[in-house]
Specification:
Elements (H helix, E strand, L loop, with lengths): L6 E4 L5 H11 L3 E7 L12 E2 L2 E2 H7 L3 E5 L4 H11 L4 E4 L5 H5 L3 H7 L4 E6 L14 H7 L2 H4 L14 H24 L3 E6 H6 L3 H10 L17 E5 L5 E5 L3 H10 L6 H4 L8 H11 L4 H8 L6 E3 L14
Parallel strand pairs: 1-2, 1-6, 2-5, 6-7, 7-8
Antiparallel strand pairs: 3-4, 9-10, 10-11
Helix pairs in contact: 1-8
């Protein structure tokens, strides 16, 4: 296993930190979950359960060991330091300043373990005007402009379907930890990794925010390629009230689709910039896709070189479609 011999202390809760350490555990790291005394990891009892265990907890904590510690008590501190002296990585996701008040901040741990890679994940980072502002994923996505961009057909913002700020901060932190581990192995000196959820999310929006940064003009989601402004990259309703997506706007896909539908005369619209100029093509697709059921369109698209997919729900997705 790639991370055999790496010991990780995980003081984080919920999703970003636990997913980070899950990925490390999956590759052989010895992950010790440090849970709050009495309370434990909140996701142990959060959401749906299967075979007596919360699915959220099971899918973020497999392969880990666990201990409950009260870091405000002498016994808890003693147990923590016994673990910290031999750790390679420490992950925490408290609000900035909390670990220092508990006496387990980076400077304190580094003093007894100079090779420690210490990673802090927070909503807004360890400094700046928002540093102590409370926030979970949805609030971070709202501040990053992602909620406004997730505009429904009624023109109003909708909650994003995925905890993207959590996910991207987890991956950003993982990459930082692995790079710091590489340096620590070469030099014997650890590092401090400060990861902000907001920064991690914004870093992944160059395809969405380019117009704003280039011109200063606000985004109009329905005119943007990624949100339906491109006819070949949009969601369409079928005759049975189901939905399908076209998910690739390259001209070769537009040609293949319009040729199959007998409307190559509309091809030039697909080559226009996203926005109102593509309205005739979008209108044609809306009218056309409502003439058949989703299942019928799945059969029609089968074997055609077009980026197409049915919009499935939890009840229509098949277990065999996902590699577990």
């Amino acid at each position: 296993m790639k991370l055999d011999g790496v010991r990780v202390l995980d003081l984080s809760l919920f999703l970003p930190g636990p997913m980070l350490t899950l990925m490390m555990a999956d590759h052989g790291a010895d992950v010790i979950k440090v849970e709050p005394a009495g309370e434990g990891e909140p996701t142990r009892n959060l959401g749906a359960e299967k075979n007596g265990a919360a699915v959220w907890f099971r899918n973020t904590h497999r392969g880990k060991r666990s201990i409950q510690l009260d870091l405000k008590a002498q016994a808890g501190q003693a147990a923590f330091w016994a673990l910290a002296r031999d750790a390679d990585v420490l992950i925490e996701a408290f609000r900035p300043g909390v670990v220092d008040r508990l006496g387990v901040g980076y400077d304190a741990v580094r003093a007894v373990n100079p090779r420690i890679v210490y990673c802090s994940i927070s909503a807004f980072g360890q400094d700046g005007r928002y540093r102590v502002r409370p926030a979970h994923d949805l609030a971070v996505q709202a501040l990053a402009g992602m909620v406004a961009q997730t505009e429904g057909f009624d023109g109003k913002p909708a909650p994003p379907g995925m905890a993207a700020a959590d996910a991207l901060s987890s991956l950003t932190a993982l990459s930082g930890v692995l790079m710091a581990l590489l340096r620590a192995r070469e030099t014997g000196v650890g590092d401090y990794v400060d990861v902000a959820m907001l920064d991690s999310l914004l870093a992944w929006t160059p395809n969405l925010t380019s117009r704003m940064f280039a011109t200063g003009e606000p985004l109009i989601p329905k005119h943007e390629r990624s949100f339906g402004g491109q006819a070949m990259n949009a969601i369409y309703e079928t005759s049975d009230g189901q939905w399908i997506v076209l998910g690739g706007s390259e001209m070769k896909f537009a040609r293949n689709l319009l040729e199959g539908l007998g409307r190559l005369d509309l091809l030039d619209y697909a080559d226009l910039p996203p926005g109102p100029g593509q309205d005739p093509l979008r209108a044609f697709f809306r009218e056309t896709f409502k003439t058949r059921t989703r299942a019928a369109w799945e059969m029609w698209f089968d074997g055609r070189d077009v980026c197409f997919a049915p919009v499935r729900t939890n009840t229509t997705a098949r277990a065999g479609d996902v590699r577990l």
